[in-house]
Write a structure and sequence with these properties.
Number of strands: 19
Largest sheet: 8 strands, antiparallel
Number of helices: 16
Shape: globular
Distance between the termini: 33 Å
Oligomer: single chain
CATH topology of the largest domain: Uridine Diphospho-n-acetylenolpyruvylglucosamine Reductase, domain 3
Amino acid sequence: MTEDTLLDRLCAAVGARYVETDPDALAPHLIDWRKRYRGTARARVRPGTTEEVAAVVSACAQTGTPVVPQGGETGLVGGGVPDASGSAVIVATDRLNRVRAVDPANNTMTVEAGCILQHLQQTAEAHGRLFPLSLAAEGICQIGGNLATNAGGLNVLKYGTARDQVLGLEVVLADGSVWDGLRRLRKDTAGYDLKHLFIGAEGTLGIITAAVLRLHPQPRETATAFAGVPDVESALAVLNRVQEATGHAASSFELMARRGVELAVKHVEGARDPLGAAHPWTVLVEVTGGFGDGGLRAGLEGALMAAHEAGEIADVVMAENAGQARAFWHLREAIVEAQRHEGGSIKHDIAVPVSAVPAFLAEATPAVEAMIPGVRPVPFGHLGDGNLHFNLTQPEGADPGAFLARWEAVNARVHDIVHAHGGTVSAEHGVGQLKMGEIARFKPPEEMAMLRAIKRALDPHNLMNPGRVVTPEAES
């Protein structure tokens, strides 16, 4: 099949207006969010139905054309950027944006992959339900990408990752056939649970086109607090107290180093430290659920009071209303933006067992400071589930390019420490292009062999997002 014939088939499948080949139209979609990766592509195709996705993938399969799925383009590891060969067709999912069904009695919602996460949260709320997946990019990111990367977010402590929000999937496979696994069941022991092959696979096994999502009752009560603690060990002790006092109600427990708070207040409008004095570490804790009778707040207050008496908390502020709680969260989320104002930033999205977080930080911090004198670590993240963004801001006055040139060497050192503490180098952002080598470096050979076997079985010609997550064969 010639190039012209392939484009003709793509146009026939989705309509010529939804096949983009103009370089200016393609350019914004050929670079990742962090501007680390750039590629080229034959075309960017925007199918509007599952059948159209299947027709596009079928045409690509018959011509040996690589396919790169692309959602909201908020990824941080280059997973949605084609390579430089120019041979791939990008399949964008933004037109797959329908909510097919909401079933409040079954606590499920059937949605298409291009639905914006925030819209799904609002749809669930309109039906008196909660969809708990929450990310900083929720106003832009699409649920298909959230599932393809097994996104984490702010509520993993209570509700789990994106994987835990899914009951069923619809997937277009590498040959263009469609697997309809849109089951709304909570119990199904009939063989392998195939949906989990595609969640976290980053489009390397097939393209997720729709999903059945779990919904939950809307919490009747939310209590939020912001506290200063002397060290990470104390933060961990506070977490345990809160969980013991409130049970499964603890939904978020965020840890922030002092430097991150200071940078946020310095650079981001509206970011304000609610505490009267500076503390080495701060925590943001939120509990949700209850009966709306104030019992949940009382339980949180009791846990924090006990922690204060034990010396684990130096100061604490409880949010008195939703606006104050939002201000706490704005400060936490501002840390990400604030780092951009300070020059280059080398980032790590890692997780270790919750109990190992203090030891990891105690080892990793001096290690990077020894590698780059004057480097400014800005660790923050989800202490409740062990996921930290161990980010490093360049030394003051340093050259950003020279600093960022150390990215791989610093990553390798930090990841060695993560591995030594039983952790993972990819906690919620995915593998993409950025971490392929590191995944192969740390996973046992038997596990890598299984991953490659799955890739070969479902994508024998290596056309689905090739060069991401895992290669079909071991690299020499």
